[in-house]
From TrEMBL, chain A:
This is AP-1 complex subunit gamma. The keyword Chaperone does not apply. PANTHER family: ADAPTIN, ALPHA/GAMMA/EPSILON. Its main location: membrane. GO terms for biological process: intracellular protein transport; vesicle-mediated transport. It is a peripheral membrane protein. Keywords: Cytoplasmic vesicle, Golgi apparatus, Membrane, Protein transport, Transport. It comes from Oryzias sinensis (Chinese medaka). InterPro entries: Adaptor_Complx_Large_Subunit, AP1_complex_gsu, ARM-like, ARM-type_fold, Clathrin/coatomer_adapt-like_N, Clathrin_a/b/g-adaptin_app_Ig, Clathrin_app_Ig-like_sf, GAE_dom. Belongs to the adaptor complexes large subunit family. Residues 696-811 form the GAE domain. It is found in: Cytoplasmic vesicle membrane; Endomembrane system; Golgi apparatus. The keyword Membrane applies.
UniProtKB/TrEMBL annotation, chain B:
Residues 7-137 form the AP complex mu/sigma subunit domain. It comes from Oryzias sinensis. GO terms for cellular component: AP-1 adaptor complex; clathrin-coated pit. This is AP complex subunit sigma. InterPro entries: AP1_sigma, AP_complex_ssu, AP_mu_sigma_su, Clathrin_sm-chain_CS, Longin-like_dom_sf. It is found in: Cytoplasmic vesicle membrane; Golgi apparatus; Membrane, Clathrin-coated pit. One of its GO terms (molecular function) is clathrin adaptor activity. Its main location: membrane. Keywords: Coated pit, Cytoplasmic vesicle, Golgi apparatus, Membrane, Protein transport, Transport.
Length: 816, 154
């Protein structure tokens, strides 16, 4: 059999291949030749063949059949064979192959070889790919070599020990004695690897850490010598003496000094020295400074030193070298929480980095900018950040938008600014904002009552421009639905009001319904908005038509809504105005308390924020108007069933009564530092309607009993707010005829707040066959005696009945 | 891991953690795409998975190093540079072809310089001397043999 071709020749040949297929052919041919050569157990050429195999492996071709051959090479006596054999082992074998264990014995022998280069090969292989089993078997040998006086072997043994410890941490102890005088070596190789070993041990074991703290003075001395000593050609890099060793020592010092006052103090001087004396013109110097800064920030350094460190980072930011700037931004990000003021000083430089071309730098600068925003700089910072949002890559937009929202929420100087900022985000990066920003935004808008007209106008204008960005469209439709009347009325204080007709508005909303760009969720929003406008606009017929069309929509959600709205038009028209009233202001916090009751009628008044508290009960009043007077003299009867407190859907959906119309649910919580409840009305949602939370044994009472109608009150204490009493009324009818269209209303004195939830039904069946229940929640902040006026209306045996009564016999526990 | 590559072809790769062959290939492919897509003015660091990648270009070759969160990127650049210097000294003005045709020697140098991802010796002289000596050993091994072979007496 002719001698197998040489490695170089093979390489040359393969490189002449012009296509992938040609190359593959050559490789396959050669592999076949190598295989047969292996089969012949030819010692002479094994080395050459394995080398060729390694080359082909690097090109991506399978080479597993060479694994055993590597082992044979390792076992050979020839140095050449061993060299290639060990290389092959490192490239082809790892702990996943069972075969690798066969190496253990060879390595053991080679660790004790007479030639240090062979020992070196063995140590290297073990230290790069040794499995835990191998490490366990050979740790003793490594430990022996760690104590040798041969620095060539000692340095390798140290790194091999690092690998052993990584694989089998329990063996760490056995290396401890050998570390005793590692640092007294003169040889930099040994010093470097020893520091690495010590670092590894300290990182893994607090006991070791405590033990090695005593080395701090020695380390400081070594570092000092490096800095102070003259030029040493062997270790010099651009005028700095052994920067690699310096960096490693600094890192070890960091670990030793962390959380320990004494050690930190011992290193203060040297750190200051390194920080001030190191040359910054080349990357090497900056690498050392970087490590120094990291160390200063981690240990218990004095404030002067910390300021020095931050200033170094500040200087880095101005460096021409991108890498340095990147590193500075990363470090500043880590320290911005603890040394906030110092970092603030460099704010303008950081903001400039937003304009950098490099993606990594931009991201860091953005994160840092958000961390630096505060009440003082919010306007300026926001301008920069919004500009960044406009021009940045899509991968940033979502995070940037979230950040802007959070910052705006925390530090907005005015409501108008806040709304403008949010509008800006929605229009520039609308499709990237997170899903939960829509309800948050809506909540914000409802809270800024005086801005409603301005907001709806701006949103309307934005819609005219662009309907592709779903969050924007959703918020806009919701607002138009709520405040459409303001839009038409042409009143706007903040800016020039626009003239818009009802038809134009409806055109826009209908446009959303049919557009391909609208998501199903958006369509839901716009249908509901159209419906709401039926009480605010006069073009009711048009709205009726639209709604009935969608009664046969393919989209189930839309269909359901349309059908229910249709029903509203047909059968429950009397309820429509009240159902479609303005939403109350939603409270955002997860803390206790019901929302404030906002009572407005179907028309315009946006300024009604205060609940209309009834005057004290003692006022004399005539029967018919009594209840209404107590409720502040609204012309429109307050229909208690409309208090929309159910927070179930994330979109501020009004008509919860008509079923669980949940919108495309809440998105994952925003990642930023300030925590936000994902649901608007979290506080309320945590209090299910009919539940017996710590009933505290308040006895039930009969509030009313007349003409066969009996109304009982049962009590619960609402968690988490003990000031809220939850009363459930049970209405029962002992007459022979049903009481239909039963409506229960209640009013309380001024110092209380009342909330009435929906009744279970409005028919009280005859002969006590069932009860109508309804929940009343009373907030009794001042702990005064609870009193209530109730009004009942129903139809009984064909005639309408109305009655008023006062309820005074509340048990003391219900309001104390 | 550490690798050197050019125009999409891998010339050297060194892995310091046990990884399946398939995963290695996948990672290398991914990294290649990302690094080769970088424009010249961009900074030498990028984030990839949970690691930091430090890369530097020398003529037609890219040298990439994957380091951990707590490692110093700037000094890694120096490590890469030192390795290139070693190659340069050894081959005498190293070029890509040297590494292609003498890949095993490049590996020997790498393994003399780094172990388990850490520097063994910070002195250039020291590393090169060790390689030199090892090469001599290899020659001593080989010379008598090849003569015999050529005479057909092996």
């Amino acid at each position: 059999m002719p001698a197998p071709i040489r490695l170089r020749e093979l390489i040359r040949t393969i490189r002449t291949a012009r296509t992938q297929a040609e190359e593959r052919e050559m490789i396959q041919k050669e592999c076949a030749a190598i295989r047969s050569s292996f089969r012949e157990e030819d010692n002479t050429y094994r080395c050459r063949n394995v080398a060729k195999l390694l080359y082909m492996h690097m090109l991506g071709y399978p080479a597993h059949f060479g694994q055993l051959e590597c082992l044979k090479l390792i076992a050979s006596q020839k140095f050449t064979d061993k060299r290639i054999g060990y290389l092959g082992a490192m490239l082809l074998l790892d702990e996943r192959q069972d075969v690798h264990l066969l190496m253990t014995n060879c390595i053991k022998n080679d660790l004790n070889h007479s030639t240090q280069y062979v020992q070196g090969l063995a140590l290297c292989t073990l230290g790069c790919m040794g499995s835990s089993e191998m490490c366990r078997d050979l740790a003793g040998e490594v430990e022996k070599l760690l104590k040798t006086s041969n620095s060539y072997l000692r340095k390798k043994a140290a790194l091999c020990a690092v690998h052993v410890i990584r694989k089998v941490p329990e063996l760490m102890e056995m290396f401890l004695p050998a570390t005793k005088n590692l640092l007294s070596e003169k040889n930099h190789g040994v010093l470097h690897t020893s520091v690495v070993l010590l670092t590894e041990m300290c990182e893994r074991s607090p006991d070791m850490l405590a033990h090695f703290r005593k080395l701090v003075p020695q380390l400081v001395r070594i570092l000092k010598n490096l800095i102070m000593s003259g030029y040493s050609p062997e270790h010099d890099v651009s005028g700095i003496s052994d920067p690699f060793l310096q960096v490693r020592i600094l890192r070890l010092l960091r670990i030793l000094g962390k959380g320990d006052d004494d050690s930190s103090e011992a290193m203060n001087d040297i750190l200051a020295q390194v920080a001030t004396n190191t040359e910054t013109s080349k990357n090497v110097g900056n690498a050392i400074l970087y490590e120094t800064v990291l160390t200063i920030m981690d240990i218990k350094s004095e404030s002067g030193l910390r300021v020095l460190a931050i200033n170094i980072l500040g200087r880095f930011l101005l460096n021409n070298d991108k890498n340095i700037r990147y590193v500075a931004l990363t470090s500043l990000l880590k320290t911005v929480q603890t040394d906030h003021n110092a970092v603030q000083r460099h704010r303008s430089t950081i903001v400039d980095c937003l304009k950098d071309l490099d993606v990594s730098i931009k991201r860091r600068a953005m994160e840092l900018s958000f961390a630096l925003v505060n009440g003082n700089n919010i306007r300026g910072m926001m301008k920069e950040l919004l500009y960044f949002l406009d021009s940045c890559d899509p991968e940033f937009k979502a995070d940037c938008a979230s950040g802007v929202f959070l910052a705006a929420e925390k530090y907005a100087p005015s409501k108008r600014w806040h709304i403008d900022t949010i509008m800006r985000v929605l229009t520039t990066a609308g499709s990237y904002v997170r899903d939960d920003s829509v309800p948050n935004l809506i909540q914000l808008i409802t809270n800024s009552v005086e801005m409603h007209a301005y907001t709806v106008q701006r949103l309307y204008k934005a819609l005219l421009d662009d309907i592709s960005q779903q969050p924007l469209v959703q918020v806009a439709s919701w607002c138009i639905g709520e405040y459409g009347d303001l839009l038409i009325s042409g009143q706007c204080e903040e800016e020039e009001p626009i003239q818009v007709t009802e038809d134009e508005v409806l055109d826009v909303l209908e446009g959303l319904l049919v557009s391909n760009l609208s998501s199903p969720v958006t369509r839901g929003y716009s249908l509901t908005a159209i419906m709401k406008l039926s009480t605010r606009f006069s073009s009711v017929n048009r709205i009726k038509k639209v709604v009935s069309i969608y009664g046969s929509s393919i989209d189930v959600e839309l269909q359901q809504r349309a059908v229910e709205y249709n029903a509203l038009f047909k059968k429950y028209d009397h309820m429509r105005p009240a159902l479609l009233e303005r939403m109350p202001i939603m409270e955002k916090t997860a803390s206790n308390g019901p929302t404030e009751i906002v009572q407005t009628n179907g028309e315009a008044e946006p300024s009604v924020v205060e609940p209309k508290h009834p005057p004290p009960v003692g006022q004399p009043a005539s029967q018919g108007n009594d209840l209404l007077d107590l409720l502040g003299g609204n012309d429109v009867p307050v229909i208690p069933t409309t208090m929309p407190t159910k927070p179930a859907s994330a979109g501020g959906e009004l008509l919860d009564l008509l079923g669980d119309l949940s919108l495309g649910g809440p998105a994952p919580a925003p990642p930023a530092p300030a925590s936000q409840p994902p649901f608007l009305l979290d506080g309320l949602s945590s209090q299910p309607l009919f539940n017996d939370i710590a009933a505290a044994g308040i006895p039930p009472m009969t509030a009313y009993n007349k003409n066969g109608l009996k109304i009982d009150f049962t009590f619960e204490r609402a968690n988490p707010n003990p000031n809220v009493a939850v009363i459930t009324i049970h209405a029962s009818n002992s007459t022979e005829a049903d009481m239909t269209d039963f409506v229960f209303q209640a009013a309380v004195p001024k110092t209380f707040q009342l909330q009435l939830l929906s009744p279970s039904s409005n028919v009280v069946p005859a002969l006590n066959q069932g009860t109508v229940t309804q929940v009343i929640r009373v907030l009794n902040q001042q702990k005064q005696q609870l009193r209530m006026r109730i009004k009942l209306t129903y139809i009984h045996k064909g005639s309408a009945v109305q009655d008023l009564a006062e309820v005074n016999n509340f048990p003391p526990q219900s309001w104390q | 891991l550490k690798n050197a590559r050019s125009s999409g072809k891998l010339r050297l790769q060194k892995w310091y953690t046990a990884t399946a062959e398939r995963d290695k290939k996948k990672m290398v492919r991914e990294l290649m795409q990302i690094v080769l897509a970088r424009k010249p003015k961009m900074c030498s660091f990028l984030e990839w998975r949970d690691l930091k990648i430090v890369y530097k270009r020398y003529a037609s070759l890219y040298f990439c190093c994957a380091i951990e969160e707590q490692d110093n990127e700037l000094i890694t650049l120096e490590v890469i540079h030192r390795f290139v210097e070693l190659l340069d000294k050894y081959f005498g003005s190293v070029c890509e072809l040297d590494i292609i045709f003498n890949f095993e020697k490049a590996y020997f140098i790498l393994d003399e310089f780094l172990m388990g991802g850490e520097i063994q010796d910070t002195s250039k002289k020291s590393v090169l001397k060790a390689i030199e000596q090892a090469d001599l050993l290899q020659e001593e091994d080989e010379s008598p043999r090849s003569v015999l072979e050529e005479m057909g007496l092996a």
